[in-house]
C-alpha cells in the first residue's frame, strides 16, 4: 500500500468513526430564541440553581450546596443527590444513587430567575 493510499484510508476511517455532535439542547427544547441561556459551567450553575426550587408536573425540589436535592415527587418526599458534570449537565437522583433507575441528567437553561431542565443522556 502506498503512502497516499494509507493516508486516504486513515482519513476515511477517521471520518467514519468521528463522533458527530448531538443536537443543540436549546434548539431541542425550543428555547434558542426565547431569551434563555444554557448554563455551561459550574460557577454559573451554582449562581443560578443552588438554593433555587425546581418544579415540574408532580415534582418540586430544592438543590442544596452540599450535593443533595430534596423535595416531593408524585406527592412523596425524597432526599437524593446531584452532580454537575464536566460537559455541563446537571445529574440528579431521587434516591442517592446517580447510576440507578431514579437518576436523570439535564441541560440547564436560565432566564431572569426562571430555570428550565432539558433532558439529556446520562453518561
Characterization of the model:
The chain is α+β, with helices and mostly antiparallel strands. Helices cover 21% and strands 37% of the residues. Strands 1, 2, 3, 4, 5, 6, 7 and 8 form an eight-stranded antiparallel beta sheet that branches. The longest helix has 15 residues, at 3-17.
Contiguous runs where pLDDT drops below 50 for at least 5 residues: 3-20
General form: globular
The total count of helices amounts to 3
Distance between the termini: 40 Å
Largest sheet: 8 strands, antiparallel
From the alpha carbons, calculate the radius of gyration and give it in angstroms.
Answer: 19 Å
Strand-residue proportion = 35-45%
Q: SSE string, helix = H, strand = E?
A: HHEHEEEEEEE
Mean pLDDT: 83
Layout of helices and strands, plus pairs?
Blueprint (H helix, E strand, L loop, with lengths): L2 H15 L7 H4 L8 E2 L3 H7 L4 E4 L2 E5 L4 E6 L2 E9 L5 E4 L9 E9 L2 E7 L3
Antiparallel strand pairs: 1-7, 2-3, 3-4, 4-5, 5-6, 6-7, 7-8
Key features?
alpha+beta, eight-stranded antiparallel β-sheet, disordered N terminus
Summarize the structure.
This protein has helices at 3-17, 25-28, 42-48; strands at 37-38, 53-56, 59-63, 68-73, 76-84, 90-93, 103-111, 114-120. It has 123 residues and is of the alpha+beta class. The relative contact order is 0.17.
Amino acid at each position: 500500500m502506498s503512502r497516499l493510499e494509507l493516508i486516504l484510508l486513515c482519513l476515511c476511517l477517521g471520518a467514519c468513526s468521528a463522533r458527530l455532535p448531538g443536537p443543540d439542547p436549546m434548539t431541542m427544547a425550543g428555547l434558542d430564541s426565547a431569551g434563555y441561556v444554557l448554563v455551561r459551567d459550574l460557577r454559573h450553575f451554582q449562581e443560578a440553581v443552588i438554593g433555587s426550587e425546581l418544579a415540574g408536573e408532580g415534582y418540586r425540589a430544592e438543590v442544596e450546596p452540599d450535593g443533595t436535592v430534596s423535595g416531593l415527587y408524585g406527592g412523596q418526599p425524597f432526599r437524593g443527590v446531584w452532580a454537575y458534570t464536566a460537559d455541563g449537565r446537571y445529574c440528579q437522583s431521587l434516591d442517592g444513587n446517580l447510576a440507578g433507575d431514579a437518576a436523570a441528567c439535564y441541560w440547564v437553561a436560565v432566564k431572569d430567575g426562571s430555570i428550565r431542565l432539558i433532558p439529556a443522556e446520562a453518561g
